[in-house]
Specification:
By secondary structure, the chain is an alpha+beta fold. The protein is built from 15 helices and 25 strands. The strands form 5 sheets. Strands 4, 7, 10, 11, 17, 18, 19, 20, 21, 22 and 23 form an 11-stranded mixed β-sheet that branches. A 6-stranded mixed β-sheet has the order 12-3-2-16-25-24, covered by helices on one side. The protein has a 4-stranded mixed β-sheet with strand order 1-15-14-13, with no helix packed on it. About 1% of the residues have low confidence.
Amino acid sequence: MTTKSVAIKRYDIVVVGGGIAGIAIAELLTRKTSWKILVLDQAEKLGEGASGKLEGWFHTGALYSGSEDAQTFLNCINAVEDLINLYSSHFGDRCNFGLKEHTPAVFVPSVRPQEEGWFGDQPVFYLLPSDGSPDIKISKLRSETVLWRMQRERALARLDGVFGGRHNWLVAGRCSAPVPDWIEKCEETTGSLLESNEVLEGFCQSHDRTFGVEPSRYDIVRSCDVQMDPVRIMRDLVASALTNGVEFETGASVEAFGMNSGQTGRLESVRYRNRHGRFIHATAHLFIFAVGAGFEQLSRLVTIRPRVSVHKSYMVIAHPALTNINFARMSPKARFHFNHLRMDGTGTSGLMEYSILADSGYAGGAADSSEFTGGTDLLLHSAQSYFGADFLYARQLHAYECLKTEFIGQTDDERRYSYWIDLDEALGCLSVLPGKFSFFPTVALQTYMKVRQQMERFGSHERSPSSKASRIEPSDKIKAAATELVADHYPYRLLSSVGKS
């Protein structure tokens, strides 16, 4: 019998999961406290899962503005507030989402053009069809048409009220989102966000003709949603975390968790094998699980209660990009949902621009290849209706699937996009899901607030106001380490690998 050699290390907090949730939580915790933090991820690089496969679309709420239940819309605009207050000043020009003066002394969120910023300055335009569109004409029920009109007017009123200059986002020197009661009173629109765009109008006409109807009128809404660079965001967060002492272990295989043998029954250690095959025994006061689709696997090692479901969505990438314009179609019919986002990917192969096409389609975690094929076909049909078959197939096209881990709603069909933070005080752990990448500022802040309460028993480790205000710029060595730790955007990797082959 051989005896394994195990290195023992002590931490205050261990974060299991190296996607955007785990990275953002670790970065904010170490920015605000002196706790010793370890982040574990089983992948060879951070952000290899859903965080690196998503479209790269920063949601400020427009997609959910027409919903009767406004909670996701509220969560999105609160995330904008947290982003500007917590990250824009700390990361300077890198986090280039801030406030601009809309009218004298009235400020609204806006992206500052910046070559290496987190966000692109090209907005996502929303296409809102009218009664003459195929979405409405194929409906057999008058009630669906009425409901769509209500949803459409609700979206226009909310967006106009929140982002059109009626709410001043600058209050006492800080960014402040409108409160729910104020939003619910937004029932009229001035049309300040409506725009005319010949290219988009041409796409809509082509789409309508594909379905055998005369071109109809569309409202084109300029939103605050923009393209973002998820990899650049994660690398900057990792560099900041490394500068403040966070340790990252990728390629780590969790073997077992240790429980307190006393009456408390709390988690107190984790044993894992690192990428070099060496066993590490790490003790900690608190564990944070931010593993997305890995909750089911994790629950076999430790008793946690993740009320989550895993869905698969399908995406198509086109290289070169189909258009420079980002747009999304709102519709009462899911089959007509369609998104186009242009990405400028930067990685080991240099700069590469490509389009990402998606819709609202999803399948259960056990989706098979036939569903993948069907989802891909639907996306291709939609893309053809806007861009034309010849224009589309002149591109290099690839399809891939992306896992989305979400709340379990009251029914199996109900989907929850909002973030989730569940504290198990008896076990000594938090389970966290970001919902969407766009929620990372709020997820990090809300997790920090819960962690601070739990860690008070172990003494205060809050950094002084002066130290929190000052930021140490990561060295070139640390920036290089962060670049190596975080995976390139998955579509970029896919296109790069095809080019090499």
